[in-house]
Amino acid sequence: MAELSNKSTKAPGSLDRLAIEQELKDIQTRLFRVQNLLYANNNRSLLIILQGLDAAGKDSTIKHVFSCVNPMGCNVKSFKKPTEEEQRHGFLHRIYQNLPAKGMIQIFNRSHYEDILVPTVHGTLDRKSLAHRYAYINSFEDHLEKNRTIILKYFLHVSEEAQLAKIEKRLSDPEKRWKYDEADEKEKANRKAYLKVYEHIFKKCSPQIPWQIIPADQKWYRNYLIAKTVVEKLEGLKMTYPK
After folding, report:
1. Distance separating alpha carbons of residues 224 and 27, to the nearest angstrom
2. pLDDT digit string (tens) for 186-206?
3. DSSP 3-state assignment of 114?
4. Nearest to residue 30, comparing CAs of 76, 71, 75, 69?
5. Which CATH superfamily is domain 21-235 in?
6. Helix 191-204 and helix 114-122, axial crossing angle in degrees, nearest 10
């Protein structure tokens, strides 16, 4: 996989935004139908992992892409800094507690990959411990897939300009100010370090479950790509209603 610096964060200039937004509506209709099939069959589950730098658009993606699904068959979990109680367990403990049951879609806003990213950038774990986590995650995801949990992993790739604009908007927009965290200011300086770790993750973590790099500067294109790949994956299962 190419370095992230060589990956575009924007939609191709030849695309018609209005046409893509209309196509997204059609895709969401298909997503509703295929989710119903997943729920009715009750023999597979879907885990969607959203990762990205701060202000990459993870919350927005969940709101705009998955607003069409039946809430009875979909859950969302946002993983923030581990609590003191969570830190007393293995790093995957809180992940296991939020895995999807059969028939369900589970969306992770951040995930177990934070337990590689943050310790690497801030130097809180040694190389041996980090290597163990890489291997453990690969084994963990392989186990999930063998137990009929489909995993889709998305990295929302946002440019530095777009990221900074979104962070600044959190200060100026009363409806977004609650998202602002002083820690965001410090983490902005670590942008390159985080991207470097992500590139390593893309190469080392579960190659049989590849990451999809999503250009995220424009919401309409980001939403379209994610919805399209989710629908295509589920439709590819050729599910029918149980008799």
Report:
1. 8
2. 778 899 999 999 999 999 987
3. helix
4. 69
5. P-loop containing nucleotide triphosphate hydrolases (3.40.50.300)
6. 130
